[in-house]
Amino acid sequence: SQQGEEDPQALSIQEGENATMNCSYKTSINNLQWYRQNSGRGLVHLILIRSNEREKHSGRLRVTLDTSKKSSSLLITASRAADTASYFCATDAGNQGAQKLVFGQGTRLTINP
Amino acid sequence: EPEVTQTPSHQVTQMGQEVILRCVPISNHLYFYWYRQILGQKVEFLVSFYNNEISEKSEIFDDQFSVERPDGSNFTLKIRSTKLEDSAMYFCASRPFSGTSGGKYFGPGTRLLVL
Fold this sequence. Notes:
heterodimer; A: mainly beta; B: 115 residues
């Protein structure tokens, strides 16, 4: 079974618009995290939401988590060209010490100036 | 801001050769990880390391792979006899906390190409 599947696979919007990406998963989780990856670069941690949280904000980022639907969304408000990147959700479902993350396929976000 | 560093950035090797990928995690972190990303595919967990031993490993992490923290600062991934399918970007990551708090800090990756 696949864990952490994002949709859409690709999203292209105009600068200033909001971007919403969704993630679904299959098992119970400890937390869900969102990462950004610029082309050919490493992963940058954006935000973590625990299984007992429903919404979290960080700057222009807003993350929601619905454990009953096993889904999460990442909203980027007032997008900028520099937000162009791939965005991955990752679920932590293992033993709490190891924090083994299972990544989704990612959403490729393009912000057009 | 402290960051995870990895060397080399690129490595080309012949099938069957041994490679060692090196990482310097952030100094006060407790947990260390290796992940890999085959081109066009998902980032996959390989192994986690805590208190000088492997705490969890994936099915990918077979006997060909080993990890070591030889000197308290470096964290290495060794692939004993590389295969074509080992070609991927390998990411090291570290984390300061135990439990469920805190995300990971990833390094920039080593792109490994096996010919």
